Amino acid sequence: MIGLIRVLTTANAEVLHEHGRLILEMYAVPVKSDCIPEQPLGIYNDETEQLANPKIVALGKHMEQDGCKVLVVSCAADPAVELLRRNVSVPVIGAGSAASYMARMIGKPVGVMGITDTVPAVMLDILGDLFIRYIRPEGVTNTTDLLTPAGREQAIAAAKTLMEQGIEVIVFACTGFSTIGLAGILRKELNIPVIDAVEAEGLIASNLYRQLRGE
Amino acid sequence: MIGLIRVLTTANAEVLHEHGRLILEMYAVPVKSDCIPEQPLGIYNDETEQLANPKIVALGKHMEQDGCKVLVVSCAADPAVELLRRNVSVPVIGAGSAASYMARMIGKPVGVMGITDTVPAVMLDILGDLFIRYIRPEGVTNTTDLLTPAGREQAIAAAKTLMEQGIEVIVFACTGFSTIGLAGILRKELNIPVIDAVEAEGLIASNLYRQLRGE
């Protein structure tokens, strides 16, 4: 199966499995999710990223030993993705790099949407000259803010602001947007490609999984 | 539907539709294929590429007017892909760039396999530091050569040569390899990811098509 790493600690099974469940529903591949220990707030600065890196590697190595054929680090910042690749022999996919390379396949100007202050470095590096602007929906600091009618309107308004500046593709820099189905809302309202980070990691991971299974 | 451009002129319906048929079978999306006029030998040098470019743009524009939601230039050299993007508003996917970005999502050293003398520039540019070596199976100058048992052995031998040099992903620089099912043979023999150019363009094109259809 696919091993999916959540980079925040949770005992809530629904939260733990939400990305894996989406990938199973979209691509009909088995996903085993697990999370790193002792970081209930996840990764939010350099210090917490340094703290998480060896835990991500340890969990990925364990998942490989457990039989996972493809690993996914399900976070738009791609934490420890390069490091994990040096420690396992199975393919390792990061949400941020998968989404950004998918945008590059389209080759049009990109607007990035997220809820943090800045775009993950890995995404800026990959998007390069296609990157136009980053935006955070007004008043939104948590994905649950987007579940209200007002939050939804703010997300659509933010996407429209990006489009006014010439972007033709939207990329999410937040895996929380996947859980609330924001991509579907924006696609319906605006009729432009929206690259959802969990959809992108799942698209490539499920393709590799099927290959390596001999399907 | 998806509009798929073949960059060689053919009156043979089987040849014309072979990439579209593969994409339909793999991803269950409708594909309309058409080819550029008056180039039965396709693109094989700078002069024939210059000759083909305006024909690709004209065909792509016609396909967009005809209702195609996504266009695919089904050639590993990505001819006229950037030019076509400036002339239509729908997404344009190139086989070479889609396959190369897909390899970058995996992030491991890449070996490229093809039947021409050199790797398309667009693929080298994208693969960058991940590119290790290009190889052409010995004695193979035409994809039909690979349909013989000897040709098949040569392709497997070429892949093994790449792996001995440390590559962990194989990317095809020839869409003819898709038609003969070479990826499946190599995956079975060698158990490493093989990025097939038609599979890669179809993976992204079908995803975008479904998005823009509101699925």
Automatic annotation (TrEMBL), chains A, B:
InterPro entries referenced in this protein's UniProt entry, alphabetically: Asp/Glu/hydantoin_racemase (IPR015942), Asp/Glu_race (IPR001920)
Superkingdom of origin organism: Bacteria
Cited Pfam families: Asp_Glu_race
Protein name (record): Aspartate/glutamate racemase family protein
Lineage: Bacteria, Bacillati, Bacillota, Bacilli, Bacillales
